[in-house]
Amino acid sequence: MNSENNEKALLQGLATNDKKAVETIYRENYNMVQSLIINNNGSADDAKDIFQEAMIVLYEKVRSGTFELNCQIKTYVYSVSKRLWLKKLQQSSRYSPPIEDQEASVPVDDEIAEHEKRDAEFEMMDKAISSLGEPCKSLLEAYYLQKQNMQVIAANFGYTNADNAKNQKYKCLMRLKKIFFAHYKNENGDG
């Protein structure tokens, strides 16, 4: 049953947020990740966190559209989890001897680096949105997070029509970009 086609179908399901595919990937891989973490100085909660992050990395890769999986999903998830856990151990100086591989691993350093960069950008974006002030903060959240359309936003925010709301959204976005890139420059030490 665990044929290559089945794996492809699971990945496609993951890309489209298909509940069944996500549950299958979870069911087939969670215990393996849990024993990896618990056997290497971790707790069940650590295992949950690491597994979620590995799933996000896999999801981001699949969504990028350029991802070719050259190994089993199991091997990939294991490799990502292992790298994430080693990083976490190093950061919290609970560093343990190298993890012994019960499973085969594949190199995933690039994916982890990409994921961390995106994580940091989300954090900066979050800070930028927080320092935007109202009504911009609520307006952008209504549009991007709650997926409200311009008519609804216009009504809720008291704009005369959807076009006015759209103009305001554009101004807010410009402001957000300014704040974000100011944060970004400081974080990356470009002055």
Write a concise synopsis of the structure shown.
This protein has 191 residues and is mostly helical.
Terminal Cα separation, in Å? 55 Å
Helix content: over 70%
Number of E strands: 0
Pairing-aware structural class of the strands and helices?
mainly alpha
- The CATH homologous superfamily of the largest domain is named RNA polymerase sigma factor, region 2, helix turn helix motif
What gyration radius follows from the Cα positions, in whole Å? 21 Å
- For the record, the CATH architecture of the largest domain stands as Orthogonal Bundle
Counting structural domains, the number is 2
Stretches with pLDDT under 50, minimum 5 residues: none
Summed over residues and divided by their number, the pLDDT gives a mean of 83
The sequence of SSEs as H and E is: HHHHHHHH
Give the biggest beta sheet.
none
Q: What is the number of helices? A: 8
CATH fold name of the largest domain:
Rna Polymerase Sigma Factor, Chain: A
Q: Strand share of the residues? A: under 5%
Report the principal-axis shape: elongated
Quick one: CATH class of the largest domain? Mainly Alpha
